[in-house]
Amino acid sequence: MRVFVAGATGAIGKQLVPRLVEAGHEVHGMTRSESKQAMLHERGSVPVVADALDPAQVAQAVGRARPDVIVHQLTAIPATLDLRHFDRDFALTNRLRTEGTDHLLSAGQAVGVRRFVAQSNFASYARTGGPVKSEEDPLDPAPAREMRETLAAIRHLEEAVLGARWTEGIVLRYGAFYGPGTSGAPGGEQFELVRKRKFPLVGDGGGVWSFIHIADAAEATVAAVERGSRGAYNVVDDDPAPVAEWLTAPAPAWPSPASSPGRSILAPPVWRGSRSRSMATPRRVGRRRAT
Ligand SMILES: NC(=O)c1ccc[n+]([C@@H]2O[C@H](COP(=O)([O-])OP(=O)(O)OC[C@H]3O[C@@H](n4cnc5c(N)ncnc54)[C@H](OP(=O)(O)O)[C@@H]3O)[C@@H](O)[C@H]2O)c1
Q1: Residue 164 contacts by C-beta under 8 Å, 6 or more apart in sequence?
Q2: pLDDT single digits (tens) 50-89
Q3: What is the pTM of this model?
């Protein structure tokens, strides 16, 4: 298949592109930077330079590639997040999830893409009911004040993608990324904050987070590209982690990917063609730091 990846140079894009190429697909990878074309080329994809917030550029890029599938992995998440100003830090990501999604969808409709796979997030469920959330659980209708715009952008993305009846719209609600190229890797911002016990505590620390190794997230995305059907899917590992545990551990000790040799029994691949379950999201944004 011809696959157009928007966000091909990002944390997940870097893992996804070579896997799609390896699986035999013709991959067109989008970036804003002329200078990143060589990197995309080295990973086996056709580089495409376009700004996702410019509808004409997106239409032209997608029109040239004429893909069967579009994958939307556009984000612009700062290395350091201030949870008290979450919406401010996510402002550009929110535009990519609203305007960017709309531009990609309309460009995809113009060329008749068969599937449209988009990145969403596990941390969007309503903070009611039990801690385990399936895809049928509602998104948070009343998010914390600091996250209202971010949750609205996710809702927009999901409704637009799942509502696109002319294609197979698929929404992947990834857990929190860790592994190479993410801020959850040793030396990365999030890893170091946890290690130094400076990661801000969310609420009373009673929440549960779902994580996903970046390699497993990419594997699940390949499966969605190749055989996914319309719907929202939690893409999370099988070891949901109470905040109080991972935040106070002496050092972050996240497991290797389920897809790596030797871990296939304990941690089965995240995508099985059926929906999985993830754990509840943080309850509210607090000001305390873990000490
Ligand atoms: N579920 C999660 O936990 C989750 C999800 C996403 C990100 N993150 C984390 O956030 C951190 C930053 O990752 P990131 O993926 O946001 O940043 P990133 O690694 O810089 O990737 C963002 C991608 O979006 C593209 N992009 C952004 N704005 C664009 C625009 N206007 N037009 C075209 N392409 C555009 C970038 O392309 P160019 O820069 O090449 O133009 C790049 O490919 C990482 O630590 C990552 O692990 C976590």
Answers
A1: 105, 109, 116
A2: 999 999 999 999 999 999 999 999 999 998 888 789 999 9
A3: 0.89
